[in-house]
Amino acid sequence: MTLLSVRNLRVTFDTETGPVEAVRGVSFDLGRERLGIVGESGSGKTMTGRSMLRLIRPPGRIEADAMTFDGTDLMAATETQMRALRGPRMAMVMQDPKYSLNPVMKVGAQLMEGLHQRDRVGRTEAYAKAVAALNAVQIRDPERVMEAYPHELSGGMGQRVMIAMMLIPNPDLLIADEPTSALDVTVQAEVLSILDGLVRDRGMGLIFISHDLRLVARFCDRVLVMYKGRVVEEVAARDLLNARHPYTQGLLNCLPRIGGNRGPLPGLDRTAEWAR
Amino acid sequence: MADTDLNDAAPSRVTRLAKQAGGTVFTLLITFIGLLAVTFFISRVVPTDPVMSILGERATQAQIDETRTALGLDRPMWEQFGIYVWDALHGDLGTSIRTKEPVIDEIARYFPATLELSTIATIIGMLIGVPAGILAATKPGSLFDQIVRLVGLMGYSMPVFWLGLMGLLIFYGQLGWVGGPGRLDAAYDMMMQFEVEPYTGMILVDTLLNGRWDIFQNALSHIILPAALLGYLSMAYISRMTRSFMMNELGQEYITTARVKGMPEGRVIWVHALKNVMVPLITVVALSYSFLLEGAVLTETIFAWPGLGRYITDALLVADMPAVLGGTIVVGAVYIGINMFSDLLYRLVDPRAK
Known about the structure:
The complex is a heterodimer of chains A (276) and B (354).
Chain A: E1 4-15, E2 18-30, E3 34-38, H1 45-52, E4 60-63, E5 66-69, E6 72-73, H2 79-85, E7 90-93, H3 97-100, H4 107-117, H5 123-136, H6 142-146, H7 155-167, E8 173-177, H8 185-202, E9 205-210, H9 213-219, E10 222-227, E11 230-236, H10 246-253, H11 272-275
Parallel strand pairs in A: 3-9, 3-10, 7-8, 8-9
Antiparallel strand pairs in A: 1-2, 1-4, 1-5, 5-6, 10-11
Helix pairs in contact in A: 4-5, 5-7, 7-8
Chain B: H1 13-45, H2 50-55, H3 61-71, H4 77-89, H5 103-138, H6 143-157, H7 160-174, H8 186-195, H9 203-209, H10 213-250, H11 253-260, H12 265-293, H13 297-302, H14 308-317, H15 321-349
């Protein structure tokens, strides 16, 4: 069953020196599965993710031949319709909890906001649900975290709060945009396994955006490799090591391996014709 | 593992705040004594001899010596400064040469007029400036944004005396919508003096406390034009700053988070962003307020407003140094006080401030 279908998505920024295309014709379908989008900085992976939520602000604009989410035409939807989708149907976890949580609001207030504002849930029930959500991301003293401000949390805790917050309304699709890049390596694994478990249990669709090919391969069913706003290769995660495209191979080879060759790592081969 | 790294200081924010308040009061005292030192030494370097300005030029040497001793000018400098600080801390700012009245009493009469005027002006500036700045920031480049910018620019660039005179000419002279110069009509002025108990020196407050609605209305009609004028200047500044703070916050990632959660745009701006904008805005409003409290000399002159700015200027023109210094000290003290208050407020609004 297809949850999300995207045909020829383009994101253009109108700058003073003319239009800049960040995404240039991306197409894919997504069921209740895990799709990885991989690419280096500026390859358009983040913009692709945010387009699904229609959260590109002017001067950026989104164009697509078709973009549907569970029967809703995302290109034609009104802002009110989009708002009804954001939160309960589609959610997103961003890179750095230091910036993605509101610094002057208590964590509890941010967790319960959706329940209060949208679902009109009462105080006690909202509190219970928020605490349950924090428990689900393995935060041990949720009552204390509810009363804390974001700057009082570590990066790993902050990101778990973020995941908890986005999963409270039980969305069908979660977009995780580099959810572990800002975290320490030891914490990364922890946060990833929490995210993995929750997505699996609830059977939701996941778009996992990262620059780390191996991480994505371990975590997703399918991988899109992006370069300069285009998808250069689409490959099943288990076949990734046999990827044909030289850019994908380049991304794989430029990572060091424990116990591997200690010589200089090969640089990326950026042949101009891939970018067309 | 990460569960242990909540800051332990977190729960006791109120205690911490109280401790800081204590520290701030100490800083305040030191700053105030510094202020006294500056004014004291200024009074020693200006080329006016206090003895001469009291006695005039034809005094005899004996009279001069006698007055010097009476004023304590024959004592060593540090002792004079000690006495000066001691007196100032006890509310004695010397005697005005011009009126022979204690400076502190005169200031107690003049300052409420300025306080009343600048408070209303700041409220006007805030009530219009903050929403205008926010709306302009949400639609940058729109017609509304352009209008706010233009109106603000006019506030910056037009001389205040011209605006004041035009305001009087149109709204008082031609239309008769507002009262003229001064704080009250002459008739009400008498009533104010004999029938109203002056609790605060601020006419609007005192008349309300005394239940004199008629005088209140007359005072309001007098204050509204100068307050609107000063409020306009303060609005120009506040709206510009609000706009730029808001633009900055709207670019932050937590704004995207709020949108991802499906929050309506109104809530994103007026709750999520505004809470963050408040933090730097406190400083801006405090600065604008203390600027007005220093006494808007030109405005007070045009509107014959018996405020602190005019008091100091008048004293300066006749070399009444005790009055000038007293006024300066009060202005400085007010400035310090407002800064301390905005500091405390800042810490209340921003949980990150230590």
